[in-house]
Design goal:
The protein has 115 residues and is mainly α. 74% of the residues lie in helices and 0% in strands. Helix 1 packs antiparallel against helix 2.
């Protein structure tokens, strides 16, 4: 019985550490929004894009922590990762098709010349 309680304490400690890392990630995301990147870049839109990229990078790390530890993907078999890889591949493909279809010069918006 003491072995089980020791394992539970170890798991609770791990979850509290991950929770703390998520809180720190949230604080860093808010602070990254306060950084003025425009003094490093001449274009204001580039500075905004860098701010968004930093926030998305932090969000990806936080998503990995949630999926890996709270959803127990770190301890699952390779089949889970294979399914996850296919999901990411098809999601990226669908996002590409969506953005491609919104481009005015894509084949979907092709209009034949009037005679």
């Amino acid at each position: 019985m003491s072995d089980e309680s020791h394992d539970v304490r170890k798991d609770v400690k791990k979850y509290l550490i991950i929770f703390g890392a998520l809180i720190v990630g949230t604080i860093v995301t808010v602070l990254a929004n306060e950084i003025d990147f425009s003094k490093y870049f001449h274009d204001h839109s580039t500075a905004i894009n860098v701010t968004i990229a930093v926030a998305l990078f932090i969000a990806c790390i936080k998503g990995f922590l949630v999926a890996g530890y709270f959803m127990h993907l770190m301890s699952e078999r390779k089949m889970i990762y294979c399914i996850l890889a296919f999901t990411v591949f098809f999601f990226a493909g669908l996002m590409y098709l969506t953005l491609w279809s919104m481009e005015p010069s894509s084949i979907i918006h092709y209009q034949p010349a009037a005679h």
